[in-house]
Request: fold
Amino acid sequence: MIPCTLLATVALGTVGLGLVLAGRWLRPRLGARIALGVTVLSLLPFFGTPHGEVRLFSGLLSETSNYAFRFDALARLFAGLSGLFVVALLLWMALGAREEEAQAAPWLLLFQAVFLHLLGTGNLLVLYASWEALIFLTYLFLGQRRADLPTPGIAERFLGIQHLAGYPMLGALLLIHQRGGTLTYGSLSAGDVPPEALVLLLGTMWVRMAQVPFQGWLVSTARAPDPADALLQGGWLLLTGPYAWLRLLSRAAAPGPQEAALIVGSISLLLGAVLAMHQETGRRVLAGDTVARMGLLWMALGLGGAWGTAAGLFLLVDLVAGKLLFHLAYAGTGVLDGTLRRAFYALGMWGALGFPPSAGLVGRWLLALGLLLAGRLPYLTVVLLASPFLLAALWRGWSFVPAPEEALEIRVGHRIGLALGLGVPLSGLLAPLLWRASFERATLAAASASALLIRATLLRLGGWLPGFLLLLFLLGVGAAWCGCFRRRGRPALDPTASGPLREVLAVLARDTAWLAWMAQPAGLDRALAQLGHALAARIDRGERFLERHTTYFLLFVLIAAGAAVVVLTR
Reply:
């Protein structure tokens, strides 16, 4: 019997296609409300029915090429994450978005239907075909508003890059079939996925998930019409890669490719944060932030085990929720009050920077502990080095949040959205819920002792929360005091005279001088400002050198990373 989950997937696709065809006669906001109701009703079976496996067309297909449809705990987790993303976007389209953006609501149903099919299929070749279908749907979605695209040919460039990146995955499937004799996931055993197949799969994900130096397609589409940027930076295309990696990692024959994932993630985390600081618009800054945080996620998945898998799940939750809030901050021009837009951006920054008790904090904490316990201190150093760059990039994005000249009316729907947005800083409290998910033992690779250790760590982290909040409050009061009462005596910084990092360092030196205000604060402030300007000037020269020679620098990084992968996987 076909389970309700399969029927829900079919219903999403059918209703979505019908709404797309009827778009000329339906009001956009009415179509968004219909899509919202259908999405909510279709997601209920994913959490109310037992999971299992069903084989379709069993009388027509052979055992080695059967069409299996399965929803285990891992598929349900990703289905729930994408479902929350879709429901939140549809709520925005139904209650507060402009009509031009609300016209995209039927497309969200089509995306969700194809993604649920990708999650449910038990055949790896069908998974590849579903991923290609997602890419083609995205191309059609971009092409329907071709006149509004910032640069002609963006949609075609996106389709070409994404399609070519899928060929290494086909090679990986060929290697898996040669060793295991089948592409049905349930029939594969541990060791049937060779390391070479995981390396090829990693190459596909490296391009499709905009990891350095292949981040150009994501940055170029950052100014696409709403909500295309939100779909590309936090939607299904970026969720598919981690899902496929977790699916195949449990059947891997050797842990070598995980080291390659750590290297790829480290490069993208550090360089993505640096490149994000040099973008000229807010949406391009967010694209660079996506590259950096996806690198952090790949570091967690590359670490693997109990610590890495748990950290990756929390970082993925934080990434999807944060991109949605950033989208509301930039897409609300002329619709949302300026204070609300800044509030949405601040809530997104809260999780992105890992403030408690957000999921971003829990993910970073688990990743740091996992790297420390595994003796991977160089990778831990990369995480610590990238944090201030990520802070500077997001702070630069804050300056691009548009503020209207006059206040707009705050409606009930806006208050509902703000209340839901407050759940992002509290998302770390979902830790027990995510941890209780009944993953396959091979997929999670966590023994009961490790689970108890992580639980104790989370409880200890919760005990430190009041002290951290008090410290954050004191720092905020001090920065406000320094900014309000001591700013008049200093010349304003000219942001066009230097790079963004130089400006941030100078402001940071000025705003932290209050910490020793009892010991001649004026002299200390001048000394810190001079030190900050001197250090920033030297870093600024390095930034300008990289700007002039970016191509050669990224080519060198690519060659070095490729050599490292070859050495580590031999």
